[in-house]
Amino acid sequence: MLDTRSNRPDLPAEIARRRTFAIISHPDAGKTTLTEKFLLYGGAIQMAGQVRAKGEARRTRSDFMKMEQDRGISVSASAMSFDFGQFRFNLVDTPGHSDFSEDTYRTLTAVDAAVMVIDGAKGVESQTQKLFEVCRMRDLPILTFCNKMDRESRDTFEIIDEIQENLAIDVTPASWPIGMGRDFLGCYDLLRDRLELMDRADRNKVAESIAIEGLDDPRLAEHVPAAMLAQLREEIEMARELLPALDPQAVMDGTMTPIWFGSAINSFGVKELMDGIGSYGPEPQPQSASPRQIAPDETKVAGFVFKVQANMDPKHRDRVAFLRLASGHFRRGMKLTHVRTKKPMAVSNPVLFLASDRELAEEAWAGDIIGIPNHGQLRIGDTLTEGEALKVTGIPSFAPELLQGVRSGDPMKTKHLEKALMQFAEEGAAKVFKPMIGSGFIVGVVGALQFEVLASRIELEYGLPVRFEPSQFTSARWVTGPKTAVEKFADVNKGHIAYDNDGDVVYMTRLQWDIDRIERDYPELSLSATKEMMV
């Protein structure tokens, strides 16, 4: 019944056992709780910290930045590695708030698959749909977990229909819920013909699993009330008639998603989902790069930076670049070439992450994510290799949707403010523009919450109170074209020109027609809302 082999490539065993994935969801669907339970099952933590609980338990292990703990949302994307059975899972946590789409997009360039979490009562919500579209653009395989079945939920067929209609993907049930809300007993595992029963008394306990020989097995009646059992048999019979059977290759191709039902807070359905990630999730995939693609089983090491996080440990004002290894077998102390600067770089203290815990990475393989502590040399989009001039492609930077000026509460600390802003720009947390005329900076973000995050972090990490204030501009576009034409354009439009932290020319304006006019009057120039972070 359990067909796990699609046409998998023949990879070295250590690479083949890697599963690098992200969890995508709408805020409050249960992503952080599910992450906690993954770590619990992986033996990585002893007690999962429920997101809205009290005291010690509520400081969830994967949300370590102060604002994340205060709000119960994931703001920074952390990476966590742990073993589960024969597999090594690399879980990249995506920001869970709608304002953090660019950081999330970049995170999805570093994974081979996504787990989509939906709320059983709410179905497919707006943020889930946006993130799903990003996964589709990258042809990422998606596995679905329908959470909160221990609460009142929608009809199972209705949930599956909505996913198929809204996301245009085939859905195949890997498990089937028995009851819902107060009457939720557990699930029937359709892949293994097992009855999985939930234990409400112990939220961290693995579900009781009973092997069943098909739906007519008399042992079912010992555990499931007659009316619920009749309904279960009828629904599964309909599901098998109406819904497609699991096709591992279709899952790999991103055209089908298997769905598991459960309750993350009660640790129910989580282990089955993890088994599914191991069985149906992809091993490390080839990485697009220029001038050639990078295959995971190449002997030489190559990797790219998809995130930079500063001040992860307030005791050490450090900066860590998250590097996804695209190929090879990395060993601590290796000398790699920093392709952008063409300089050698000894990677002496690489770290593996478990939420806020870290350990030295003595070795790592293609598919793994390691942290490289550095003092600002590494930026998002940078490629590290064993000498070959490869540049990983497809890591975008988006034009901000909101622009504001920023002022320090202490005029004597302007230099401190500049340092903080540059750090956040390199981290990808915000766009920072230096106007051609006048002093000060303009900060651009995707959503309003990011201004709060920045103000909070500048005060917390630099001891510098700041305030954001309205800017005369509402849009920013990168100006590209022949060098002399760009310089001439900048000279004529000084009042609208600024430079980003890479020194690239940006045109600032209030009005869309102004952008249209420039594109008409300067056909040799391009005003772009995205910039490829390929360096």
Automatic annotation (TrEMBL):
GO terms for molecular function: GTP binding; GTPase activity; guanosine tetraphosphate binding; translation release factor activity, codon nonspecific; translation release factor activity, codon specific. Pfam families: EF-G_D2, GTP_EFTU, RF3_C. Its main location: cytoplasm. CDD domains: RF3, RF3_III. InterPro entries: EF-G-like_DII (IPR053905), EFG_III/V (IPR035647), G_TR_CS (IPR031157), P-loop_NTPase (IPR027417), PrfC (IPR004548), RF3_C (IPR032090), RF3_dom_3_sf (IPR038467), RF3_GTP-bd (IPR041732). It comes from Mangrovicoccus algicola. Keywords: Cytoplasm, GTP-binding, Nucleotide-binding, Protein biosynthesis. Coiled coil: none annotated. It is found in: Cytoplasm. The gene is prfC. Belongs to the TRAFAC class translation factor GTPase superfamily. Classic translation factor GTPase family. PrfC subfamily. It comes from the Bacteria. GTP binds at residues 25-32, 93-97, 147-150. This is Peptide chain release factor 3. Increases the formation of ribosomal termination complexes and stimulates activities of RF-1 and RF-2. It binds guanine nucleotides and has strong preference for UGA stop codons. It may interact directly with the ribosome. The stimulation of RF-1 and RF-2 is significantly reduced by GTP and GDP, but not by GMP.
